[in-house]
């Protein structure tokens, strides 16, 4: 404890294995905790109302310091690495207003008919990847789907899509030589896609953005357009991990799986509940205090990092009835989860991620009624990532 504030060691095996219990224990000790790892420390709001308020509080800002850039990025690519996520108002607000019409819930719903064939094609291909009776659903379904969706969104030609899958896999790995090589390729592909859509407008995201640029007198620069495509590739990691986590949980809870098969109309609510209960985000992107701020009797100094415990807030009994219970039919009128954050930096692609997950789970459960985990649930290999709850692999039998 630091002055009565609970501490969470992010390197502790117990925290790595079960962060939900660790953050829940801290939440019930108090509304503020301190999380730390070698070279890193962060104040976190542990309870739902407080976390939600902080995410919407202008005294805490996202800056370039909120992100750790991977090593090995070529210097000429650096101007494209500063995405909208890193920007604060008014720069963030300007870009968000320009691109938001391309990411509405209606736009995501309209995209569903184009998304469904992408899902079906991956499911058709699963038996080809069987190895000793099992297939890795992470490698051959959850991971390639978001990059296929991005290719469809930005109009990447079919012939180029296998390369983009390789780029997506390299970006998902997060570092290493493949990551450094993927960035210039993604940016070059984005430039080419933008040029194609300028010459031949289509029904896709880039055409929407080009129209926004033209309507706004060119204030959306070409660099910002290319950066937006790069941001989409990064954001694709959320549906990868949400789909994989959701499948693992459903296959580990046969009663919930049976209910969802029997009541497929529950799928939209089920996706929201799965995002609350096993969503990939454990901690929000760190914010930095713009001034000295007192939080629950603790002085947070200007420049100190503050975050929200998404894992703790999403299971806060002050906001959710019986929060430790997975309820796929949880009433829609309950508090909205914080899995897509809140406030000015609420995830712009949330509607698309929801539709993508709904379509993926619906088709997977329909196509493979005998789907089962190829290993015991507790044997799942998870990435030891303090900010994200995600799997290395998801071996299943079909």
From TrEMBL:
Q: Which SUPFAM superfamilies match?
A: Cytochrome P450
**At the top level of its lineage, which domain of life is listed?**
Bacteria
Q: What protein is this chain from?
A: Cytochrome P450
Homology family: Belongs to the cytochrome P450 family.
Pfam families reported in the protein's UniProt record = p450
């Amino acid at each position: 404890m630091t002055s009565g504030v609970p501490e969470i060691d992010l390197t502790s095996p117990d925290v790595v294995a079960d962060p939900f219990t660790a953050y829940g224990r801290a939440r019930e000790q108090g509304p503020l905790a301190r999380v730390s790892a070698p070279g890193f420390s962060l104040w976190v709001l542990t309870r739902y109302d407080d976390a939600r308020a902080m995410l919407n509080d202008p005294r805490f800002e996202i800056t370039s310091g909120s992100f750790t850039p991977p090593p090995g990025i070529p210097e000429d690519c650096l101007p494209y690495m500063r995405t909208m996520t890193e920007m604060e108002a008014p720069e963030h607000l300007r870009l968000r207003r320009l691109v938001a019409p391309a990411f509405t819930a209606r736009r995501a719903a309209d995209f569903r008919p184009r998304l469904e064939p992408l899902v079906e094609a991956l499911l058709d291909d699963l038996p080809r990847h069987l190895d000793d009776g099992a297939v890795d659903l992470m490698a051959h379904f959850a991971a390639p789907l978001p990059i296929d969706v991005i290719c469809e969104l930005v109009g990447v030609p079919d012939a180029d899509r296998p390369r983009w899958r390789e780029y997506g896999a390299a970006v998902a790995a997060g570092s290493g030589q493949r990551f450094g090589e993927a960035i210039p390729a993604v940016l070059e592909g984005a430039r080419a896609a933008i040029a194609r859509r300028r010459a031949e407008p289509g029904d896709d995201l880039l055409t929407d953005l080009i129209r926004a640029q033209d309507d706004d007198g060119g204030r959306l620069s070409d660099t910002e357009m290319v950066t937006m495509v790069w941001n989409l590739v990064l954001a694709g990691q959320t549906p990868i991990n949400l789909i994989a986590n959701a499948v693992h949980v459903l296959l580990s809870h046969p009663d919930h799986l049976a209910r969802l098969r029997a009541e497929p109309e529950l799928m939209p609510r089920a996706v929201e509940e799965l995002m609350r209960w096993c969503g990939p985000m454990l901690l929000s992107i760190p914010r930095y205090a713009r001034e000295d701020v007192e939080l629950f009797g603790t002085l947070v100094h200007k420049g100190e990092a503050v975050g929200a415990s998404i894992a703790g807030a999403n299971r806060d009994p002050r906001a959710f009835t019986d929060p430790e219970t997975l309820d796929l039919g949880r009433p829609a009128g309950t508090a909205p989860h914080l899995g897509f954050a809140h406030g000015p930096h609420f995830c712009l692609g949330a509607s698309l991620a929801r539709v993508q997950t709904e379509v993926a789970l619906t088709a997977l459960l329909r196509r493979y009624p005998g789907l089962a985990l190829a290993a015991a649930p507790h044997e799942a290999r998870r990435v030891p990532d303090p900010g994200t709850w995600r799997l290395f692999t998801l071996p299943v039998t079909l």
